[in-house]
Amino acid sequence: MPADAITIPFPYTAEVTVERYLDRVKIDRFLVRHFRNYTRPRMQRLVRSGQVWIDDVPAQSRFRVRTGQRVRVRLIEPPDQLIDAENLPLDVLYEDTNLIVVNKPPGQSAHPGGNYHRGTLANALQYHLDCQTPLPGLLRPGIVHRLDRLTSGVIVACKDHHSHRRLSFSFQNGRVGKTYFALVHGHVAADCVTIDLPIGRLPGKSRMGTEPSATNAKSALTRFQVLQRFERPFSLVRAEPVTGRLHQIRVHLASAGHPIVADEFYGTDRDNVLLARQALHAAQIRLTHPISGHDMEFSAPLAADIQAAIAQLSVIGLSESVVNVIDVREPQPKV
Questions:
Q1: CA–CA separation, 266 and 260 (whole Å)
Q2: Active-site residue 148, yes or no?
Q3: β pairing state of 152-158 and 280-288
Q4: Rounded distance between C-alpha atoms, residue 210 and residue 255, angstroms
Q5: Mean pLDDT of each 10-residue bin along the chain, 335 residues long
Q6: Are strands 221-229 and 192-196 parallel, antiparallel or unpaired?
Q7: Is the torsion defined by CA of 224, 229, 234, 236 positive or negative?
């Protein structure tokens, strides 16, 4: 538990109001929506033991909630699926009661899993949220979208289930704009390129691809704009994925013959001298706030290691805006 979190001993009583979209949901399902670090069996046990009330009436397991009702729960034990909280550095770009937007460093996984169960962004966010609540685990960070471990840049997380639900719908329905920068091999011939190739999983491999043999292929469209061609055969490109497929930018660039520098899956230079990780940076996200409805955009400076790689390359007419973080608000390319 974080040393600087303000805590009070159990039991702890919390009260929440039933939202319209959860009308007629069973009481245990409603509770796990609001207290996402608690499992459904634990909430069912709290209901059976008389620790939950709906409008001051003791709840029973068969009860369903109605819009506008007040649900009070007496938490008598800690969460049972709490992410380990770790006091790790967080580069917070924006934060309010619903959202937190951070600049993720390269090399940090978004969630625990695989070979990375500690040191992830979720571990750091859980600590950050625990410092804002009277009990650890009352909030659970909901990371809404994917960002590869080796990719740096902007990533958004929600603090509550309602924001997470609405923002997830926005991502799924293509209502979120994303801009990336990538340093790639070769001189991209056209200034503006649109790649519209379905992406699926390659048989017998852990990689994605655009080949006809790829299974469960789904439509994928990415718009690219060349920002700089270097004297050595490299280009700096701006990428705007319209769809959100796994490894979409990396796969599309590789399929066009311009893999991202130091991309261990889709590149050709596992020991590239320019960078120790793939040269891909999530520079900007544009979205509608899931609660207020305001249009917002969040930008992260180009990562230092990519800037250092660019500095090693001889350039022709490199603009100051590219050197200094690159202006992510350039007009969209006409394709």
A1: 8
A2: yes
A3: parallel
A4: 7
A5: 54 95 97 96 96 97 97 93 94 98 97 88 97 92 94 98 96 95 96 97 92 95 96 95 96 96 85 85 98 97 95 62 40 33
A6: antiparallel
A7: negative
Position 314 scores a pLDDT of: 67
Query: Cis omega before residue 11 (within 30°)?
Result: yes
Q: Note whether 214 and 199 are within 8 A (CB).
A: yes
Residue 314: CB atoms within 10 A of its CB come to: 8
Contact 277, 148 (CB under 8 A): no
pLDDT of residue 190: 95
* 294 Cβ contact partners less than 8 Å away, ≥ 6 residues apart: 288
d(CA 31, CA 69): 13
Token pair 């180009």 is found at 302
Residue 175 and residue 242: Cα distance in Å, rounded?
9
Domains along the chain?
12-75 (3.10.290.10), 92-171 (3.30.2350.10), 174-323 (3.30.2350.10)
Residue with tokens 């409805």: 293
The catalytic position among 148, 160, 263, 305 is 148
